TrEMBL record:
Name of the protein in its database record: AP-1 complex subunit gamma
Any GO BP annotation: vesicle-mediated transport
Cellular localisation: Cytoplasmic vesicle membrane; Endomembrane system; Golgi apparatus
Pfam families recorded: Adaptin_N, Alpha_adaptinC2
Lineage of the organism: Eukaryota, Metazoa, Spiralia, Lophotrochozoa, Platyhelminthes
Length: 796
């Protein structure tokens, strides 16, 4: 009986009892101590560790089992070491000697246990100590140990890439193996080496013929029971070889040329009826698109993805759509041939496939297919779920703006977009519609009639109602007369009462958003000057609607109502002038191109008599200041500095500088404070050849101070310091005194201004220089702007 009582409980019994426990207390009660068998108890401890209970106290017991001569003990001990130890554990060093001894054991299974443990828990120190033993095992005559040692070497070079060279000859020799397991691990090892070292990548590119030969033998060999998977010979090895070929052929035309034939053979000979064949074809596509392949191969790859789109398996269709999205820029015309199949995927029941198909459809839109694709996307937008509407609406608005065949089509498409998207339409679509309608005077009456119709049909669509209110306020006069759009459609005139009724609904309805009410109250006010007849009854209705929200709790709405009511009461004589239609809005694309003209010192108005050509020249000079100054203060540790494109947009400083232009007092003859450099923002830098040889700035005229010319020269003396020499020249015929220059940089930099060489600039070429030092104390790349103010006296 004593023997039976002390017999340790088996692991399967422990698992059965834990699973049968009804409560956490019963589960904890199952854990008991059974000293007679350490091996079984550690196995139970590992199971308890997998359940989430603390088991770190069993680390020493695992090391005792590792030191045991029995294989059953070592197996559990090494398993416990892999689960309970990591490279930060204090007992980590204790297991190193046991691993080293077992790696040289005569039994291959014990040596493989040591290799598996080393690969799982190796630290940099442990890897250096045992790297030689791993190299010796790679050269072993035992294929089983060579396979395990190659995987262990892969883990070691991940920890310590600098000892990679000792494994290069071993990895190269493994490619001559006949054993598929050893070949698979060798390819994995070489792939890791190539990813970690460009020099190793160039070395292994010479072995491309060997890899091609191995891959060709795989697809041309007959049936092998050991390696066949659903009619495909060792697909795992094929996939790994294809991945390695993709790494070796990337941006290398010579290596890619050697792969073209075998890639075509694999693509045409692979069985496609099984999922395992699809995995190989997928890797073939990625490899063809990842190397410098021939155009015919790229078409073949896209056609493979096109066949994937016809597969009934949703996972395969999703993979095809995702891959086509990645390769569409590589072979745009080949992907276009499958546009019909891609559009059909928009009707799939799976939401993830719908989203990928939608994104790919927008990538395929161009000037030739915009009409058909827009029709398909509008149909999709009408029927799709709410999670797709916002993205679809915004992307289609961008596509319509870019590829619209004519303005009438563009206007119709944007209105249909807003109608189909409803309240899911983002503000950018409304802004695009406002921009378009304001630019096209020929279609303003047509647009306001269409918007009045849409808003009257469905008032719940707030983006459409907001746009309708804005257009009624600006172009509402077109509603009171018949409209014929391009001689094709005729819209009858609307009465003022109908128009006011729509605006009243927008102002008073609980469905209206605050932004809609803001626009509506303004539209009501502007409509008072657009009426065909200034009837007192209509004006009274407008006055009542404008004053309706004078006591609103919303500050913006209340302010508008109060101010508009004040115009009716006290400024009736200037109401028409105040409420004139807005000028044509500047195009968003044009505003981006013209933005530099309003930036920096060159954009500061120097008087009403300034010529347009002078402003453009000053703007170009300001852009040059921004570009060159960027090269001076780009504290990049690389060998090249950065000079941005001088034509990129710069922030507009005119608004911030306007308050500085009125600084003169009546007792001083000082000129105005001028923002000489402006807020010189920068965009993405373009490389220059030498970071220390920085270009000088062209002279720039200081707007607002006649005859004053400024120039800036800089050099990088140290890695984190830039010296700037600012020179002011008086080209006028009057004396300038009390010269003062002030400058500022962002908080991340430090600026030191040295005293100027003088404070007087004599006429006809008198000059003053001043030195400044910009320091980057943190040593990080700093892209910033410099703002400067100059003040002189004696300017006429």
């Amino acid at each position: 009986k004593g023997i039976i009582a002390n017999t340790p409980k088996r692991l399967r019994d422990l698992i059965r009892e834990i699973r049968a426990a009804k409560t956490a207390a019963e589960e904890r009660a199952v854990k008991r101590h059974h000293p007679p068998s350490r091996c079984r108890n550690v196995a139970k401890l590992l199971y308890i560790h997998m359940l989430g209970y603390p088991a770190h106290f069993g680390q020493m017991e695992c090391l005792k089992l590792v030191a045991s001569p029995k294989f059953s003990d070592k197996r559990i001990g090494y398993l416990g070491a892999m689960l309970l130890l990591d490279e930060r554990a204090e007992v980590h060093l204790l297991v190193t000697n046991s691993v080293k001894n077992d790696m040289n054991h005569s039994t291959q299974y014990i040596a493989s246990l040591a290799l598996s443990t080393l690969g799982s828990i190796c630290s940099p120190e442990m890897s250096r100590d045992l790297a030689g033993e791993v190299q010796a095992l790679i050269k072993s005559n035992n294929a089983y140990l060579r396979k395990k040692a190659a995987l262990c070497a892969l883990r070691i070079i991940q920890k310590i890439p600098d000892i990679m060279e000792m494994y290069i000859p071993c990895a190269r020799s493994l490619l001559n193996e006949k054993n598929h397991g050893v070949l698979l691990t060798a390819v994995c090892l070489i792939s890791q080496m190539c990813q970690l070292s460009p020099e190793t990548l160039n070395h292994f590119r010479r072995l491309v013929p060997n890899l091609v030969r191995i891959l060709k033998n795989l697809i041309m060999s007959g049936f092998s029971q050991d390696h066949d998977v659903n009619g495909v010979s060792d697909p795992f090895l094929q996939v790994k070889i294809l991945q390695l070929l993709r790494i070796l052929g990337h941006q290398d035309s010579a290596a890619s040329e050697q792969m073209n034939d075998i890639l075509a053979q694999v693509a045409t000979n692979t069985e496609t009826s099984k999922n395992v064949g699809h995995s190989i074809l997928y890797e073939i596509v990625l490899t063809i698109m990842g190397i410098e392949s021939e155009s015919g191969l790229r078409v073949l790859a896209v056609n493979i993805l096109g066949r994937f789109l016809l597969n009934t398996d949703k996972n395969i269709r999703y993979v095809a759509l995702s891959t086509l999205q990645r390769v569409v820029q590589a072979d745009y015309n080949a992907v276009q041939r499958h546009r019909t199949t891609i559009v059909d995927c928009l009707r799939d029941t799976d939401a993830s496939i719908k989203r990928r198909a939608m994104e790919l459809c927008f990538s395929l839109i161009n000037g030739q297919n915009i009409r058909g694709m827009a029709k398909e996307m509008l149909s999709f937008l009408t029927d799709c779920g709410s999670e797709f509407k916002a993205d679809c609406c915004s992307n289609l608005a961008i596509a319509a703006e870019r590829y619209a065949p004519n303005k009438r089509w563009h206007v119709d498409t944007l209105l249909k977009l807003l109608a189909a998207a409803g309240n899911h339409a983002r503000d950018d679509v409304v802004v695009a519609a406002v921009q378009l309608i304001s630019e096209q005077s020929a279609y303003q009456a047509y647009a306001v009639h269409q918007l009045f119709y849409y808003a009257s049909q469905d008032f719940s669509q707030q983006p459409m109602v907001l746009l309708a209110c804005w257009c009624i306020g600006e172009y509402g006069g077109g509603l009171f007369s018949d409209c014929c759009a391009d001689g094709l459609e005729t819209y009858s005139a609307k009465s003022p009462e109908e128009v006011l009724g729509l605006l009243e609904q927008a102002l008073l309805s609980s469905q209206s958003r605050q932004s809609t009410k803001h626009v509506a109250v303004t539209a009501v006010m502007k409509l008072s000057t657009r009426l065909p007849h200034q009837e007192q009854q209509l004006l009274d209705s407008i006055r009542h609607l404008a004053a309706y929200h004078c006591t609103s709790s919303q500050l913006e709405l209340q302010q508008r109502s109060v101010e508009f009511s004040a115009i009716f009461r006290h400024h009736e004589n200037i109401r028409a002038a105040l409420l004139e239609p807005m000028p044509v809005m500047e195009s968003r694309a044009e505003s981006g191109r013209n933005l530099p003209a309003g930036s920096g010192a060159a954009a500061v108005a120097s008087g009403d008599s300034a010529e347009v050509g002078d402003e453009e020249a000053a703007a170009a000079a300001a852009a040059a200041v921004a570009a060159t100054f960027e090269s001076l203060i780009n504290f990049d540790d690389s060998s090249t500095g950065g000079v941005p494109n001088a034509t990129t947009g710069l922030p507009n400083a005119a608004t911030n500088s306007s308050s500085m232009l009125s600084t003169n007092n009546s007792n001083s003859v000082a000129g105005p404070l001028i923002d000489v450099f402006g807020d010189l923002g920068v965009s993405e830098p373009a490389p220059v050849s030498d970071a220390s040889a920085l270009p000088a700035l062209p002279p720039i005229a200081s707007a607002g101070i006649a005859g004053l010319q400024l120039s800036l020269v800089g050099s990088r003396q140290q890695s984190n310091n830039v010296d700037l020499i600012i020179r002011a020249v008086n080209l006028g015929d009057t004396n300038m005194t009390n010269f003062l220059l002030q400058a500022a940089v962002p908080k991340s930099l430090q600026l030191s201004m040295m005293p100027a060489s003088g404070d007087c600039l004599p006429p006809a070429g008198g000059s003053v220089t001043q030195k400044a030092v910009v320091t980057n104390p943190n040593g990080v790349s700093a892209l910033c702007g410099l703002k400067g103010l100059v003040r002189v006296e004696g300017v006429g």
